[in-house]
Every structure is written in structure tokens, then in C-alpha cells.
Amino acid sequence: MPALQRDEAQTRARLIDVHHYDIALDLTRGADRFGSHTVIQFTARAAGDTFVELKPAELHSATLDGRPLDPAALDDNRLPLTGLTPGAHELRLDATMSYSRTGEGMHRFTDPADGESYVYTQLFLDDVQRVFGAFDQPDLKAVFALTVTAPTDWTVLGNGLATQGDPGHWTLAPTPLISTYLVAVAAGRWHSVRTEHAGLPFGIHCRRSLAPHLDADAEEILDLTRRCFDRYHEIFEEPYPFDSYDQAFVPEFNAGAMENPGLVTFRDEFVFRSAVTDTERQTRGVVIAHEMAHMWFGDLVTLQWWDDIWLNESFAEYMGYQVLSEATRFTDTWTDFAVARKGWGYDADQRPSTHPVAHRL
User: Fold this and answer.
1) How are beta strands 155-158 and 185-188 bridged, if at all?
2) Does residue 291 have an active-site annotation?
3) Which among 43, 282, 289, 292 is least surrounded, fewest beta carbons within 10 Å?
4) CA 35, CA 281: separation in Å to the nearest integer?
5) Per residue in 64-80, pLDDT tens?
6) Which residue of the set 259, 291, 313, 326 is catalytic?
């Protein structure tokens, strides 16, 4: 699939404003496929043409303002939207999507320990199209309202508070304005430890086979989370902008962690199965603090285009070390930074692959 280029993103951002997504996901269709229905409300500033991204197993139907579009027009995961007139528009997409086994899009995992299955999203950088149709670029923020149909014994987590109506039918509270790559869903028979802090629900979650190990460290993780949360409020002087703070330790994660607002995901190696060193506990703490920094710097305030990702990540890395050292018992974080992270940077700069901090993408 072709990667969206900055010039294309700028052209699209000049043409349209995106307001609202209604997304319905059906996770009850078996081990390989799930259903995805998307309704997008957007406005065209002028007459023109654009496209929406979607990578389905099958696109069943698409309509623009009630007018059917030909699903066969989908080419290289782009569906053309031609002849837009100035004003409001509604796009509807109904598709069957494929689960991923590589951590891209909607990843599905079956635990060999007990046969339980779990699914979760990882949409950074441009894998939104593997889950739902979207104008997928970071500067086209919108409100996202999701409903999820799941097996009746599953729990669904997301960016907003999740409530279950009829068994297996979940509604996630609409988000504030966020970028497409930050939308998150995780579903399965999670083992959860929940509490409240500063008037907000906090939770940590893992697969059931790791429950004893999460329970053993739950108080340390939650205490560290509370302390960092309070310190960020003191530093930023801006209230946490989302309605809950969940942290899910997920299997087969292809990164260290991801700053989805309200639902941070971590590789579940951070649920320690045996005795570990204090340095390993500190490393977990730095990652927790790093991802929390993104709630403000990255999620509330977001880069316009990907060539500024270095600033997003370097600032969160700095704040992670600083806040952990100020707010918790891990007061020597900068010593470890000098030994590990600084050396990592020097090593990269000495290689033929060294490059400027920012590229034109």
C-alpha cells in the first residue's frame, strides 16, 4: 500500500475538516475476520476530490451523502471521493477486516496457557486503515464514538469509559478531538485491577494467565502511576484531558508501549514473572511515565506531520526520566540515562546510517 506523503496530507487538510467518526466493530465473526462499519462526518471547504484509506478483506458497501460508491474503485487501499461540493458530507463504509498476527491494526492472540483469546489495536503510524476507514493523518483530528460487539464473557477497553448494555454489546464514551492513530480498543477476558484517583477511574489489565504476577506488582504500578499523574499536573498546569486512565499489558506487542489516550498499551513482558532487579523495575517505571507524558504532549497537543515525531518522543523521554526521579523512589534515573540512553545515541551517530533529527517525509 502506498504511504501517504506530506504533500498529499497537506492538500487534503486544505480541502476538508473532519468532525466525527461513528465506528462499530464486530469481534464475534471468528478467529480470522471482524466486522467494521464506519460513518464519517466531514466538511469540504471548497469543491474538489480526495480519498479515504481502508484496507479491508472485503469492502461490502460505501456511500457518500447517500449516493452509492463502487467498492471496486478501492485501489491500493484508497477509495476516491470525487466531486465534493462545499459543505457538510457523510461517508459510510461497511467492510470485513482481517485480524493481524504481526501487531499491526487489530492483533489477535490466543494464549497457549489456557486457550483464551485477546484482541487489541496498534494503529501507529498508518495502520488505522486495517481496522476502520479514515482520513488517516495526524492533523485531521476528530471525535471518535465506538461501539463493539464481543463475546459475552469478554471485557472491552477503549479510549473512553466502556459500558456494557446487552451482554456482549459495549459502548465507549466519545473521545475529545484526537488523531486517528490514537484510537484504541482491547478486548478479551482481561484480569483487571481497578481503583480511582483524582476523581478518575484507573485500571491495569493483563491476560488471565498472568493474573498472579500482575497482582503481585499491582500496588507498585498503581502507586507509581498516581505519583506521576499528580506530578504532571503540577508541571503542566493543565487538567488530564480524558475520562479514565487504563494501562493494558498485551501479548505479542511489537513495540515497548503506545500512548493511546485513556488506554495505554504495554508489552506484557513488563508483567514480571520472576524476581527482577531494581533497574528493571525502574525501566518499567520510566516507560509508564514516558507514556503518561504523551497524554498532554502528543495526544492533547499533536504533531502536524510525522517529521516532527522526534520532538514528540524526545520530550516524552525527557519527562519520563525527570518525573519518575521527582515523584517516586527511583531517584537515580538520570544516572541510568547517562549509561544507557546517551550511549545508545552516541552509537547511532557513529554508524553510516546516522541521519538528521528531522527528515522531509
Assistant:
1) antiparallel
2) yes
3) 43
4) 39
5) 999 999 999 999 999 99
6) 291
